[in-house]
Amino acid sequence: MTILGPILIAALWIVPIYVSTLSQGMKTVEILDETGLFFDQFQSDEHIRFIPIFTDLETAKKGLIASGDDALVYIPRTELNVPVTAILYSTSQTGMDIKTVVRENLRKQVEALKLKAKNIDPEILTSIKTSIIINSIKIDKDGSEVKSSEEISLALGLLSGLIIYMLIFMFSSQVMRGVIEEKANRIVEVIVTSIKPFQLMMGKIIGVGLVGITQFVLWIIFTAAIIFGFQIAHPTFKQNVAQIENFTATAPASSAQSINMNEEVTMDPNVFTQAFEGIQSVNIPLVLLTFIIFFLGGYLLYSALFAAIGAAVDNEADTQQFMLPVTIPLLITIILSGFVINNPQSQLAVWLSIIPFTSPVSMMMRIPFGVPVWQLILSIILLVATFIICTWIAGKIYRTGILLYGKKITWADVIKWVSIK
Description:
The protein has helices at 4-20, 57-67, 96-117, 122-128, 150-184, 187-191, 197-233, 237-250, 256-261, 271-281, 284-312, 320-335, 337-342, 347-354, 359-366, 373-401, 411-419, and strands spanning 27-33, 48-52, 71-75, 87-89, 136-139, 145-148. By secondary structure, the protein is an alpha/beta fold. The protein folds into two domains: 26-125, D-Maltodextrin-Binding Protein, domain 2, CATH 3.40.190.10; 148-213 and 272-419, no CATH class. Helix 5 (150-184) packs antiparallel against helix 15 (359-366), helix 11 runs parallel beside helix 16 (373-401) and helix 14 packs across helix 15. The radius of gyration is 31 Å and the shape is elongated.
């Protein structure tokens, strides 16, 4: 997975963009407009070719089957008002691109006709459409002003929290499975003749943790190298990325024509500059440093508990009754992640980032928004202290449970092991 992981991660970025830029071929759409109002509105482009036809509907449907064209758009004549309904005939599913283009063409023309009927110039409405830009500026205690971006902080906080959540679960579970495997194979009976059970537990926790950090760093390096290498090998890839970003920001349609016609949503030319300034406003070194600290603290805390669970059972199926109480704090944090990133300075968010069992995830969600130094220090101290206490408790469970076979362990048994001096 150290080699395969970066390839899969890079593929998630490269493949969708690369595939979306491949030529989809020309689609042919016939237009049967009984009103005569919409023929000029349908302009062909490099993706869709519109062909006006002048016949009755039944003949047009038979011609569609014979010609092999992609679709037939039928706009019926109405007696009282401008038509707002059209029928799209096709011999197979056409996809959303044709339907979206047709809908946008009809919408624009119908709106123009309605405005004209009320003696309103459509250019007037176009001219008053205005994009509102709100710049966020953070004022420090010394009075200095720094541009900030709530969107960038939100995305970075949510991403950091989710990554820590996944890494803690992934590597802590590896510790638990390793303990269960050694116990089931009776290997541990040989190992404990040379070292103490607590040393064995800590060795496994530290070993798997170092493997996890090494693998994570290699994933970042390899993934960046693969994406960078692909960009060098395909110089047009950056242009394709820019086209996709412009496409996403301008309209939800699937063709270039619908993008050009959707004038209600536009991208401000300074949006990328603002995003870059928003990234600069975040203390990236602090985010990286705290990420490592809270990953290590959270991993050491939960891996000690998971190692104790692995020592108390004989197989992985028996771990569920012990894992749920242990993992509930992290699950609660993920459930409340939306509230935390939207209200990073609220009392609930602060307490979640202070309590050791939830702080690894919650604090990482808050750090991009700015956290008081005393809260950060207090959170780290409590996390380290809780890790030491839980490691001591887990060590007592591990010492007794690692050599116990064939007995269904209950919570009463676990409490009894902990109370043994």
